[in-house]
Structure prediction request, 902 residues.
Amino acid sequence: MRDPFSGFLRVSVSLWLTVLTFGVTARAQTIVFRDITAQAGIHFTHNNGAFGKKWLPETMGPGCAFIDYDNDGWPDILLINGQDWPGHPPHLAKTGRDGDPGHAKSGATMPKLYHNNHDGTFTDVTSKSGLGISIFGLGAAVGDFGNDGFDDIFITAVGQSHLFHNNGNGTFTDVTKAAGLWGPSEFSTSAAWFDYDRDGKLDLVVSNYVQWSEKGDLYCTLDGAHKSYCTPESYKGTSVRLWHNLGGKFEDATQKAGLNDPTSKSLGIATLDYNNDGWPDLLIANDTQPNKLYLNKKNGAFEEHAVSAGVAFSEDGIARAGMGVDAADYDRSGSASLIITNFANQMISLYHNEGNGLFVDEAPRSEVGRASLVTLGFGCFFFDYDNDGWPDIFIADGHIENEIERVQKRVSYAEPPHLFRNLGNGKFEEVTTKMGAGFAAPKVARGAAYADINNDGALDILVMTNGGPAHLYRNEGGTNQSLRVKLVGAKSNRDGIGAIVRVTAGNDKQWLMMKSGSSYLSQSELVLTFGLGSKTKADTVEIQWPSGQVDKLSNIARGQTVTIQEAKGVIAARPYGKR
Amino acid sequence: MTKKFTIAFIAIFVLALLVALVGAAAPANPQEAARLNNIGVAYMNQQLFEKGLKAFEEAAAKDPNLKVTALNRGVALLNLQRVEEAKALLEKASKDDPNDPHAFYSLGLYYKNSSDPEAAVADFRRVTEIDPNDADTWYFLGSTYAQLKQFPEAISAFEHALKIDPLHASAQFGLARAYQQSGQADPAHEAMKKFQYITQNKLGSPISLAYGEQGKYSRAEESPVAAEKVLPQIPVKFVDVTKGAGLTSRPSVRPTKDGASFAGPGACFLDYDNDGNIDLFLPDDGTQGSMSLYHNLGNGKFEDVTKNRPCRKSRQSHPPSPQ
Prediction:
């Protein structure tokens, strides 16, 4: 029998702890991530095209993006889809399981655009948007390449990737050919918009995985009897591609920018300024090949430094299976550090930027290493989910091989995600199971992104699963305050991509970079969220624009999204809670 | 009264007998414990850590004096990510047998991957005292020093590892990183070049985090089992039976144009017709333009069936693609 007294004791001790925590920090929060997918009206099933032959691209997707395509201040949702392989009988589409009964007739599956209704629900607007084309899509990047005030979409695919121009009226036009992007037939994965030559026009970098074709698909097996998905070691690599924006038209600048590297097998891209020289650099996460770190030489070219900087390999010297990647200054050192998701039996990488051109993988020493050892991570990002001013880490997990449990008992196909809370001293604490059962449930996750979908100042999460549904998690229960910043570039690109925003509040100093890309196949919203804890305002907000312009603002109250225009200041503000 | 007394007496007697019997069954069974322990080791090698742990627990129940079971349970728990239980058992094992490097080594790995690299240094140092000739131990010692940013100590430990195993890829990489981080660009560059030479030419590969690949002392330990009886030695010799077996239709060595002898490209035993007898396939050796298939007749003889069973040449023979 249980000792009734010990129960009492436990309750009283935990009460005391709660009181103490409250007293010290005054911000005890009980945050959960609630799965609101169904109630939000999102009904989506990813078509991975799988029909039994286990063709490599089937297991890689999909990604997703948050895009405020109609500029109403509420992030809308783009979900990327695959399709049936040519000549192979449609299976998902037959039943209309991708959520659109119309597809039951046409046999097609397509990407989905959902409009945010400002009330926690979304409406499928794919058919009138012009995005409903059937491709083997994998990822997406969002950016206003024409500087017309409306964000455009690049969708990566197996075969031909597509560029969609936002017409500003809820419709998009496929401008792939007109923009000069037609031609390359590649296994394109992640993509990112960034202005590498700082001419005010967004350029595009696209990661490519391996040389794969239906005919060239190789046979691999885990158990000697059944085909499995091959690891990329079996295939030849392909270079990333850099598209230089000439003003509506793009030129392939891969070669002249020094990015051509056919040994790369790339899945993730992060844009970051790792040496703080004001010019955007690139981290390319490679799968079973060394990662690449391209330093911007400020003359239209890059120089590769991954080996000498210490991000090419694990600290044991292994070229790991890099998947997703993100960059942020998680310990307020002043420089951007990196996370990279890797394979099962490999920890994720937490490359700490030492500020002298070197990175050191701190994962083994922090909780994130051991906790991520047996999981296979894809989507990943730094984001301050509890608004305490310190970037936390989210990792979307899921194995590539549905038969994996037969051969490796400690590894599973569906896996729980990881949420690591930043403790502020370079250490993290795993809090996944405290976020609700649905959130912690095992999934075969791939892409992931974040945005504040309900204007409450707390970041929500979107997770994609391979061959399964999308999951939208609403961040609930937080009491900490935040300030959100949207940028409007004038001389710089319209989205302010590449701008560094520094916020001080009392003794707290933090900064974030506006960026496209990061995570895996996915893009988060183009709005920055600064956690302020219990502070009532940001004392200073400083924006260092890609053009070189620096704007300084002071005394910006918490609890709102401010829109800051280059060289002008705050041009709009919307308080939280307002619809 | 007497009857009751008798029944009580009998009951006590039966009880005593039962206790004696159970007691007789309980004595340690070292042979069975060792067997169960080794089954656990085999499960561990198959990455079946739950089953391994269960076998080690059964072994410990059979013989509580079998020291290795505490260590092995600790290793299994470490791989099951039940780190706190693992730590307690490994600490016990290191005290039970302070001259066995295994427990110290696993504790070192545990501390290295937690927030206590100083403790890891102490454990790896202890292993180097017990066995100074294990390159992996020196590597992990160096790697832990590097975590602590004690680069001269790290460099010395990596160099020690490389003295024992010059192709230790991880030690070579660690050396390069330690030079990089201590600002010694030239030796860093040299060391990194060597690392890339080692890995690109596949002369050595870095240490992986998978079970069994973190050094010999990271694995569960087998227990010696005394052979029940010694079998008599059987003399073995090999006799050339090629001719008698009917494998003469193709010479294995033939002269080439420049007079040098040329050996065939290899052979493959396979049971192509599933009759239970292993047949023999000889691929095209490039000189005759044909391959051969010999059918095993089951009586020590082979029959050349190349012509009856057309082996069409669909593509050039080559080694299978690596996974």
